[in-house]
Amino acid sequence: CDVTYNEFVEHIHSDPDNIAFGRWTSKIGNAIGTLRLGTPIVLLWIFSLSFDRGITARIFRCRILLWLSPLSYPIYLLHSPIGMFYWVATRGPKKEFWFSDVYGYPLPVKWWEYFVIVTLSGLLGGIIDTYVTPILLPYTIKYYMWVAHLCCRWLKIETCCWNTETCCWSTVEREGNDTFTQIENMIKDLTGGSINRSTSLNHLGLDSLSRTVFLGLVHASIPGTTNKLTMQDLAKMDSIGTLVDFLEAYHTTEDFCITSQI
């Protein structure tokens, strides 16, 4: 756009009592966005995607998008702070008025710099997703499981594991410790859906965040898979059966209980 930085500032602060946050507001935009009247339309669109038909579904099945999909959430989280640091690196350290609410303002950069910021966000997100998250997530899950275990003991909830040495993913109501059953319970907790060995991993409805959580659950449940099963490996697997066979090659079902670290 040919909008100068001063014009950008003037547009945002033209009315101190009604800051536009850099967006060209309108009655229709306010109704669809702020009042969330567009939500039913979006829900219908998402529901239609569950049938895996149509132009949008075909586009989303593209191999490049499937490969990039795990980066969508990291890019969402990182693009604003990276954009701010990019601004400082290219424009100088002077503090701008929008730094304190970087998520609320569109970054006033040139159009081609948008792709630079998104690329940097994707690279950093990929590094975190590949090398940091798989290491930290199992420990955070174990910690929260330990907290949940203590809460269960304190509240005396019968469905919790009462063994003081271990805390299992499955409760008293969940019988069976085979690999498939454990994976089935994880998927059911995340999506509420049922699976079988032929179920496609791409049809589970897991977004990028849920996939990361699911991968963390597997890492936390099966010691030794942290460096063996990666997000890229998970993306290449075509079915639940493939995943189960992969996991059974590394561990026996008796190891699905997590030994308490406390």
Automatic annotation (TrEMBL):
Top-level taxon of the source organism: Eukaryota
Residue stretches spanning the membrane: 31-52, 64-89, 114-137
Alphabetic keyword roster: Membrane, Transmembrane, Transmembrane helix
Coiled-coil intervals: none
InterPro entries membership: ACP-like_sf (IPR036736)
SUPFAM superfamilies membership: ACP-like (SSF47336)
Record-given protein name: Carrier domain-containing protein
Organism placement in taxonomy: Eukaryota, Sar, Stramenopiles, Ochrophyta, Bacillariophyta
